[in-house]
Amino acid sequence: MPQPGAARGHTSWQWKLHSQVVQLLGILSIALCGLSWKNRSKSGQSPLLPTLLLGLMLFLAVFGIWAFYHLPRPVIVSVHLAGGIAMLVLLIWIALSQISAGAIDAEKAQNCRVFSLLGLTLLLVQVMLGGWVSSNFAANACTDFPLCKGHLVPPMDFSYHFNSFDTPLSVGQLTAIHWMHRLGAILTAIYLCWVAVKVLAIEGLQNIGKIILGLVIFQFVLGASNVLLGLPLAGAVLHNAVAMLLLSALVLLSFRIRKSAGRA
User: Fold this and answer.
1) Rounded Cα distance, 176 and 133, in Å
2) What is the pLDDT of residues 200-226, one digit of tens each?
3) In angstroms, rounded to a whole number, what is the distance separating the alpha carbons of residues 152 and 146?
4) pTM for the whole thing?
C-alpha cells in the first residue's frame, strides 16, 4: 500500500513529463469544452463529447490524488489506463467529426459494423490485460515463446483476488496473469486480421484495412520479441505505442462505418 511519504520519490523526468502532459491535456479539454458550448448553435454540433472529456479529466485528477494514498498500484494503474484510453477515443472522435471523409461502399460497410465494434472491444480488453500485467510486474513471468515455462499451458494459480494486494504474488499467479494476456493477444490478433481482410474488400476503407493488418502483425511480432529479449524498455514503450495506434485505427474504422449510415 503506498504511503504518503512515497510521493517525494516521484522526481524523475518521466514523472515530470507526465505531469506536464496532463496539464496540457487539461487546458486542451477546458478550451474544447468552452468552444463547443460557445459555438454549439453556429456549428450545429453537440458539446456532449467535449463535456465528457473535461469531466473525465477532472475525475482522473481527483482520483489520482485520492487513490495514491488509499489504493494499491494495480488498481490505480488500471483506472488511469482505462481513463487514458477513453480520453484518446474521445479526442479522436471529436477530431474526426471536424474532418470530411471520402465516400465508401455504405452497404458493405454496414455489414462490417458489428465486426468492427467487436474488434474494438477485444482490443480494449487486451490493452487492459496488458495494463494488469504491467502493474503486477508479470511481464517476465514467462521468458520463452511460444511456450511458457516450457509448456503450452504452464502451471498457474488463478486465485488472485482484490484483498491479496498487501502480499507478493506467487510465481503461479504471475504466470496466470502473463498467460492470460498472451492468450488474449493470440485470439485478438487472429480476429483483427480477419476483420482487416474483410475491410480490404470495402471500397474507400482499403487503407484502413491495410493499416490494421500491418499494425496487428507488427504488434504480435513486437510482443513475442519483448518476451524473448527480456522486455527492454524501448520495446515495452513501442509495444504500448503500437497498441494505441491500432486502437486509433479501429476507432477510425468505426467512425467511418457509422458516418456512412449518417449517424456520426
Assistant:
1) 10
2) 988 888 999 999 999 999 999 999 999
3) 8
4) 0.83
Other CB atoms within 10 Å distance of the CB of residue 166? 7
- Between CA 38 and CA 32 the distance in angstroms is 10
Q: At what angle do helices 233-260 and 113-135 cross, to 10 degrees?
A: 160
Residue position matching grid coordinates 488472485: 160
Residue with cell 449518417: 262
CB 92 within 8 A of CB 251: yes
Q: b/e for 168-197, b at 16 or more Cβ within 10 A? A: ebeeebbbbbbbbbbebbeebbebbeebbe
Rounded Cα–Cα distance for residues 45 and 207 (Å):
28
pLDDT tens per residue across span 132-164: 898 888 888 988 998 898 899 999 988 876 555
Rounded Cα gap, residues 216 and 22, in angstroms: 29
Return the domain boundaries, the chain.
12-99, 103-160+168-264
Q: CA gyration radius for the chain?
A: 20
CA-angle at 40, arms to 35 and 43, nearest 5°: 100
